[in-house]
Amino acid sequence: MEPAHIHRLQCSRQWRGFLAALAQEFVSALPPEELATLMARIGTRFAVAHPLPNSDTVRGLQDAMNGIWDPLDWGRAELGQNPAGMEVVHHFSPLVAAFGDTHAAWATGFLKGVYQQWFDAAGGSGLRVEVTTAADTLGSARLHLAAAA
User: pLDDT tens across 44-62, in order?
Assistant: First the structure.
């Protein structure tokens, strides 16, 4: 499938013009670092409004996250543990479809905020989520959870 077709599926046409104008206004008002922080705050608010049920396993946590994402057509989370921490791969978010390729770096801040809040609420206080790869043309992004420096 072509990214343009996927973008049409990920972001309804009624929102595309509005979100493009919003993105342009954002970039004219704030530098990218501040936009990423703003999007993380928005993500935190989203996560607070969509709390995860308790889970005792990484698989259960992943399933709980996908239980939020799936009905909203916001893609899927894939969690993986390694010695350096936990990797989160979020597949098929509508961020690039909504804001455009050129805004992926700061728009991915939304996912950072969501996952940070969810991990904090799950008992991961003191751990920090960082974006390692911004959302690509298909909306997939990589984030890393590890001890705060």
Answer: 999 999 999 999 999 999 9
How far is residue 140's CA from residue 149's CA, in Å, rounded to a whole number?
26
Please tell me the predicted confidence (pLDDT) of residue 7: 45
Residue by residue, DSSP assigns 11-42 as S-HHHHHHHHHHHHHHHHHS-HHHHHHHHHHH
Q: Are 112 and 91 spatial neighbours (Cβ–Cβ below 8 Å)?
A: no
State the Cα–Cα distance between residues 35 and 118, nearest whole angstrom.
21
Spatial neighbors of 64 by CB under 8 A, at least 6 apart, are: 52, 53, 55
Amino acid at 5: H
- Residue 139 identity (one-letter amino acid): G
Of the candidates 43, 20, 37, the residue with the CA atom closest to the CA atom of residue 102: 20
Model confidence at 9: pLDDT above 70: no
Q: At what angle do helices 32-49 and 109-119 cross, to 10 degrees?
A: 40
Match 């008002």 to its residue by tokens.
Answer: 29
Give the length of the chain.
149
pTM flag (> 0.90): yes
| Cβ proximity of 133 and 112 under 8 Å | no
